Amino acid sequence: MAAEILFERIDKHGFRFQVGESGYESFAPLTEMYDGFSRTDLSQGLPPPDERIRRRWVETLLKSANNFLAWRDGRVIGHSCLMADLNRGDAEFVIFVSELSRNRGIGTELTALALEKARKLGLQKMWLTVEAYNFRAIRLYQKFGFAFSGHADKERIMVLNL
After folding, report:
1. In what order do the strands lie in the sheet with 147-149?
2. Dihedral, CA of residue 130, residue 143, residue 47 and residue 15, to nearest 10
3. Which domains does the chain have, with CATH numbers?
4. H helices of 5-160, where?
5. Phi, psi dihedrals of residue 92, rounded to the nearest 5°
6. Which candidate, 110, 29, 7, 130, places its Cα nearest to that of 66?
């Protein structure tokens, strides 16, 4: 398990997990998590279902974004990242949690780490896109203060002013 900053947490079911900011050294375990996603786990076509494209996508995120991982028993169970544009003062936020680790507070911890990093970077805004029917994710984002911006059919943009 490789992470720059690591914090011990307890999920909603009483099981321990760790969260932390991480970099390229976590390529293999993060790729392993995404390799375990089924086609029904895809959100907006992500993670890419094609293995070669998925590996390139993970590599790009790890090299060009601030990444946060959740670990349990030496395995990555969740990933969030900020793709910051310091010139604009904003960042796109993405988050994925493995199916068996959902609805346990993992996403909440990963979101909190990303928000803390965004504030340290001096960003003024975070934004994301979410499928309009992904109510669990929408509730998570709203808990942190994200609000809908504009209207769309299948996808919605949510914004958080920091």
Report:
1. 5-10, 16-22, 66-72, 75-85, 90-97, 125-131, 155-161, 147-149
2. -160
3. 5-161 (3.40.630.30)
4. 27-35, 51-64, 106-120, 135-143
5. -85, 140
6. 110
Say which residue, 131 or 45, is predicted with more confidence. 131
Rounded distance, CA 159 to CA 57, Å? 24
Q: Per residue in 102-115, pLDDT tens?
A: 999 999 999 999 99
Distance CA 89, CA 51 (A): 33
Q: Which residue has the higher pLDDT, 2 or 82?
A: 82
pTM to 2 decimal places: 0.92
For 125-155, what is each residue's pLDDT tens digit? 999 999 988 899 999 999 999 999 977 778 8
Burial tier of 4 (Cβ tally within 10 Å: 0-12, 13-18, 19+): exposed
> Buried b / exposed e across 141-156, counting CB within 10 Å, b at 16+?
beeeebeeeeeeeeeb
Angle at 26 between CA 5 and CA 85, to 5 degrees: 70
Strand, helix or coil for residue 35: helix
Say how far apart CA 5 and CA 83 lie, in whole Å: 19
